[in-house]
Amino acid sequence: MRDSLLQFKVENLGPLVTGTLDLAELTVICGENNTGKTYLTYALYGVLKTLEEYLELPEFDILTLRQTGVLDIDLQKLVIPDLAQIVDRAG
Prior knowledge:
Elements: E1 6-13, E2 16-23, H1 37-54, H2 59-68, H3 75-79, H4 83-90
Antiparallel strand pairs: 1-2
């Protein structure tokens, strides 16, 4: 069993300039007040909750994920061009 199930990278998210979060079966996020824990948690929840529902991943991405356990998704490239449509669907 791998220690990390998913790696989540962020840039310019609230007070977080850049960071990487390795998710496992249990992940604890801790730190001082106003350091971006809530921003990170909400962003992670939002991505995981809506990724499959609103984004159609090409079949080769699904195959890569199954084979390697890793899928690198640039949400800015994938979401920004269709942002208005995604927001309308999320309603």
